[in-house]
Amino acid sequence: MIPVTIITGFLGAGKTTFLNQVIKQNPNKKFAIIENEFGEINIDSQLVISTSENIFELSNGCICCNLNGDLSALLNKLVTGDYDFDHLIIETTGIANPAAVAAVFLTDYNIQTVFNLDGVICLVDTENVLSILGVEEVASQQIAYSDFLVFNKVSVISTALKSQISQTIKNINPFAGMAFCDFAETETSPLLNLQAYQKEKTTFKLGLQLTQKQPLIFTQQHSHNNIVSQGYLIGPSLDLLKIRHYFTVMLFIQGAYFYRIKGILNIEGLNRKLIVQSVKGAPVFSDGNAWEDGESPESRIVFIGKDLKREILEKGLMQCIYKP
Q1: Burial status of residue 149 (CB atoms within 10 A of its CB: 0-12, 13-18, 19 or more)
Q2: Which of 163, 291, 293, 309 is the most exposed place for a label (fewest CB within 10 A)?
Q3: Nearest partner of 284 among 21, 80, 74, 105, judged by Cα
Q4: Cα separations (Å) of 319 from 44, 152, 245, 313?
Q5: Sheet holding 115-125: strands in order across?
Q6: Is 126 exposed, middle or buried (0-12, 13-18, 19+ CB in 10 A)?
Q7: What is the rounded distance in angstroms from the CA atom of residue 229 to the CA atom of residue 260?
Q8: Looking at the domain that runs over 2-197, which CATH code has it been given?
Q9: What angle, 0 to 180 degrees and rounded to 10, lies between the N-to-C axes of helices 68-80 and 98-107?
Q10: pLDDT confidence of residue 80
Q11: Would you give the distance in Å from CA 121 to the centre of its chain?
Q12: Where are the chain's structural domains?
């Protein structure tokens, strides 16, 4: 399996600079790189340090929408052609939603037999991130969907502002790791092995304990402008048919409002975890590990999106609790 790293980030955040750091710091890696530029002339690919000819361009379109067919064709070319590489990197344009790119690797069975999505890394303009969030929706989507955030240009801000930014972003996206740096200079080797989509890496905690009187507990509601993170911890087991229907209908009707959903579900009659994630407006379910000895089977779900209403989400989840 060839690991895939997606590099995203809003315009001017430093994606290409970070990509060059990855290449310089990992000389033993054989990278294939897909560069995407919104426009007929791809400038970014000319700025990438290259030690091979494994750099490919997708121009005159955004990779997250009308170029997905071209992306699949290029992936097929990489597999069937005479190319020597052991890691694929995709740098998206600054106005791309990485969820749609990730969907290619999470929903296409043929691609999954060769490529394994390792993680999504987002470059963040530290100085302007708080003002961009909630204003530029795609920038908010990029941050919400990513598995690791590299905050660039950090020397121009104060320590207090850095702390505020860190807490604000952590409230919005509780899954992502963080690094603060200048000139995108951070240790990149661990970022090429995030394994963010491996079932062994799906565990996350919401910081609450269940009580007998509260079968469903709402965690702290975090928000910045109109971006909201809602987390739930559910003790009783869930009905598989009901929870599948709930996610499918909810995302079909209001998918544009959900930037990311991630959950570990306790399903009645199933002796292992069921993992759910939202991919391009649709739920993707996958089998997780068995519940470990001493581990309390419980469902943990986090919704990240725009103007999400706690009461509506909670009501829907309560209706999915298994009833004999």
Answers
A1: buried
A2: 293
A3: 105
A4: 49, 43, 11, 10
A5: 55-59, 31-37, 87-91, 2-9, 115-125, 148-152, 177-180
A6: buried
A7: 9
A8: 3.40.50.300
A9: 50
A10: 87
A11: 8
A12: 2-197, 201-318
Amino acid found at 231: G
Looking at residue 279, its pLDDT comes to 75
What single letter denotes the amino acid at residue 269?
Answer: G
Residues 6 or more apart whose Cβ sits within 8 Å of residue 28: none
Averages of pLDDT over each 10 residues, the chain, 324 residues: 94 89 91 69 48 57 50 83 88 84 85 93 94 86 93 94 92 90 96 84 57 57 77 91 94 85 92 86 86 84 88 91 92
What CATH number should be reported for the domain whose range is 201-318? 3.30.1220.10
Amino acid found at 295: E
CA triple 300-191-63, angle to 5 deg: 85
Token pair, residue 254, equals 């209001």
For residue 153, the model assigns a pLDDT of: 92
Please name the amino acid found at residue 36.
Answer: N
* Separation of alpha carbons 68 and 80, rounded Å: 18
- Do 71 and 65 meet the contact criterion of CB atoms below 8 Å apart? no
pLDDT in the model for residue 66: 43
Q: Which two tokens stand for residue 185?
A: 């200079």
Which amino acid would we find at residue 232?
Y
CA atoms within 13 A on the CB side of 263: 28
